[in-house]
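Schema walkthrough. Field components (list of strings):
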Amino acid sequence: MMKKWLGVLIVCVLVFTLAACGNAGKDSNNAITPEASSTPAEPGGNNAVTEEEGELLPEDGASLIIWEGKSQRNFVEALAQEFTEQYGVPVKLEEVENPDQVTKLTTDGPAGLGADVVVFPHDQIGRAASAGLVLPNDWFGEETASENDPNAVSAVTFEDILYGYPRSVETYALLYNKKLVSTPPKTFDEVIAFSKTFNDPKKNKYTIMWELQQFYYDYAFLATTGGYMFGSNNTDKEDIGLNNDGAVEGAKFLASLKESLLPLNTGDITFDIKKGLFIEGSLAMDINGPWSLADYKAAGMDLGVAPLPSIGGKPMSSFSGVQGYYVNAFTKYPNASKLFARFLSTKESQLRNFEMNGTIPANLEAVQDPKIQNDEITKAFYEQFSHSTPMPAIPQMASVWGPITAGIADIWDGGKDVKASLDNSVSQIKDAIASQ
Amino acid sequence: MKQHRTIAVLLSIVLQGLGQIYNRQWLKGILFMLLEVAGFIYIAPRLGGAIWGLVTLGEKTQKFVKVGKVAQMVKGDHSIFLILDGLIILFLVFVLLGVYVWNIADAYRNGKLRDEKKAVNTFRQSYEHATTFYFPYFMLALPALGVLFFTIMPIVFTVMLAFTNYSAPDHIPPAKLVDWVGFKTFVDLVKMKSWSHTFVGVLVWTIIWAVLATVTTYFGGILVALLIEQKGIRFRKLWRTIFIIPYAIPQLISLLVMKNLFNGQFGPINQYLGYFGLGGLPWLTDPFWAKVTVITVNMWIGIPVSMVLILGILTSIPRDLYEAADVDGASTLQKFRIITMPFILFSTMPILIMQFAGNINNFNVIFLLTGGNPAKGDYQFAGATDLLITWLYKLTLDNNKYNVASAVGIIIFLIVAIFSIWNFRRSKSFKEEDMIQ
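Field assembly_structure (string):
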């Protein structure tokens, strides 16, 4: 008897599975069949209406999902609530850290599983835009371009199309412990002079540290003396300037610092170790970005921030990034998403984010606000930002990090010839780009 | 007198289920027929598209069209979805083809019964027959379907990716199409200097690592187990508990702790060495020492497993063998060499080979401890301690080189498969032979 019922059950389940398989196949099939996409104005009905009224209205029944990192939760949740009150569109936050967003969007976006509004640093925009994952910032394009810092605007633009809604700008600067350093050093010579009285590796006392393993920071040494990544605008993949005379000069100076400042191997300095030393007062200066401020303030440090010390009289040129919101190209509610991305990136919103999280606005008027002008730390970051180079955004960037990091490790850890190591890195990068 | 079977088969070939109806198995025939009709209705309009998709991988790219102030997205073909959808359709066709063949065989069998003037089963009888005699097959059919669609299909999909150029930045859909490139990815891995250098380097290290990691933990485990089982050892349980602890802590935690312990400047290990006036070692930052470190740490994690295994085997060795050896005046070493070691080897050889295969894919230790670092300038997206499997991870998740990653995946699969088959053969031969002559 038992067996009979089991048999019936199994047949039922079989039929159901087949039916379920069938349905799933059908849905995804619809999404990609050529017929389904042959009409250009597919979600057009709504736009026709908005066009006439000259106002962008959210779609009926729209609801949005935004991906943001943990540190921005307070800001996004507060603004989402206001947005819902104003437009009647509910917004849900899913935690995805910014560096992971494009990778996730590459697979989830086209499959219809991605968030409607996403946020990532601008160096990822080449990857995202050339893969067709984000919608252009068209409706609010003019406002976005005129209100924000031109550097930030060009950073969220790819191949002359504006995609992003800038959220904040960031770069690294010199963070120092005011108890150990009374006036921040203006030049690297001063740093070296200070280290003669302070450095004591046996007691783990160090003058200055940065994450040597991250070329993001090392770049500043190569760039100040004339090195560059991809041509003059950082868009020419044929012109790699990481082994030119300037870069070699900078790398030689960098290598000399191992003796005088930082007798450690590249891999030994991790973000957490550095943080620990800085908080306990064993480290006087830390090259770090605004993302680290919250931890240091929470630890009750007497923190000062200054622009990076100059090398050979030239201000040190750091890498800068622009965080921006983007609209997923596969969103069901493009209008609502654009409205929300805009809502999060207006002058007022950028200022609120500064108050809540200390992010540095990209909005020109926001920067002039007394709240920012009276904030020493933000001013120092902003000064460093004016000396910075935006990270290249072309997709070929992905081929750079590995080889150049290894080159720096060869020079720093292995004491290898500077020119030869950099040449090797560059030829690796060129090989990688050529093999694409 | 072969009429019925011929006619039934012919009818079933023409239309699935017709032969059954001819055999007067109405319900069964209708069920077969419905299945074929449903299959046709579902698959016929899709098959062309599926084959077109699999062959061309799409022809139109996605683009934006300006409508007034707003850019509209015009959807293009998504090569990867085309592969997946095509595969689903093809697999369904295979399943239905299987049913079709079954239907013909069934028509033949029942037609033959009629030719022999025997009664064919009624539906009720076939049903009862099926639920009693074929019950296990029904039970197996579900998981088999699951395996087909959730295991075999993804594998076929991955294998297919290795023959495309699905990689960043120029071939990531939906904005760009992916094309078939045949064996180009494999040829590049072997021939193109920048890839082949990395591939050979990582492969050689993977094999060295797998051998060393297996051998060290195995013999380490034997050593510890023998020491614990020595006659006259006190607190045996305590020793056992102590040595099992490393195994009880999740690797995720212990390996991250280890990473800090081995830090060249701030790690306690080098600090202690400093107290004794010794210079520290670049545990994680020098390519050679990083390799030494991962093998050492792997011993710490792997020895408890081997120890437990071998403790169990030691208790199963017949005592009288040792007693006889004692009577003959054998030394401890001789007893170990002639009795203990062959016994252990005999029982653990299959496990040892599987451990070796497992170590080839030992993702955790490398990824958590060194992350494949220290960086190696002349490697493509790999560091000095990267195994094939961690390299594959970097290729896919960090660099979107899905095609190279698939090719590497296939190669890993081949290596592991070879060891598994060899292992299977060995364990069979072991069964048939008597172990100690």
